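[job 0417] fold request received: Malonyl-CoA-acyl carrier protein transacylase, mitochondrial
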Amino acid sequence: THTGRAVAAAAWQSGADSGPGGVRAVNLAELLQSSVGDEEPAPARRPPQEGTVLLFPGQGSQFVGMGRGLLRYPNVRDMFRVAEKVLGYDLLSLCLRGPQAELDRTLHCQPAVFLASLAAVEKLHHQQPSVIENCVAAAGFSVGEFAALVFAGALDYTEALYAVKVRAEAMQKASEAVPSGMLSVIGRRESNYNFACLEAREHCKSLGIENPVCEVSNYLFPDSRVIAGHLQALEFLQENSRKYYFKRTKMLPVSGAFHTRLMEPATEPLAEVLKSIKIQKPFICVYSNVDSNKYVHSKHIQRLLVKQLVSPVKWEQTMHAVYERQQGVEFPYTYEVGPGKQLGAILRNCNLKAWKLYKHIDKRMDKEPAYDGRH
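[job 0417] inference complete; emitting structure tokens
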């Protein structure tokens, strides 16, 4: 009989089989099916906690050089080869060499973070296969949700990458239509974010802006929000931060008001591509950014991935849903797979006990021969 570990190895090592774009989808369908079947991994191989949780980061975590230490792992170079065919440009070179300004553009960084996260899963499977075998839940921040769904067997790697490409291009185009942005806010207990946004919208109306947008777009952790909308509204909030009991405000280096109705023009292109690809029920729990609930079926995924573009990311609520447990039940090990450690920092502020079992799969830990320009 095959143990979960043997199935994991088989699932990942067969990654070179032919498929869309010339490489098999990177998904864990075979592995995850085994974990819900009759055969359980030997108890001695399971960690004392009930399982593991994988978190996939979103836009803003990218940096030049990410992925360099992952090229040695099975399938990673194939993933980059497929990406070049799907995207029409050399994503590997952009990740390794930059320039940073190009990597930071929405249409480039979303595919880059998506691929780098799944490449980090390859490293994790190679170094600690039991982490993959014992995974019970996954969540991804914004574009990270696509990587989480590929990992969970709900989406094919190549098709998901194409959807991310369409999403990123549509979001870039929508953000260029209106001067808009995102403002990170650290507040206090008495901060009233909705009232602050209302007054910022009224200010915009006084400037002659019709249907101004200013609303919470990310719930990060207690007293931390991201507010997005028209630039004039965000400038108003910065200038009046003391009135609203904001401790600190900082403009984020993004091109638009993501997860607000200013992204409405991006919904139709994404909806069209999601209708054309195969979506399956995930083999493990994957939590939605829109309502912090588990996805239950393929139509649910298709609908909420579109709704996510114009809805706030409820990450704080998702962390509560993932780690909610009865007193005395141990927390799972958590792994952030992808560039940056932002999700770990947020977890620390949401749930300190869960964070104590957090690890980050870092792209830069491994030494790798110099990139020679070939894949």
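[job 0417] notes: Residues 180 and 230 are 4 Å apart (CA to CA). The longest strand covers residues 180-187.
[job 0417] exit 0
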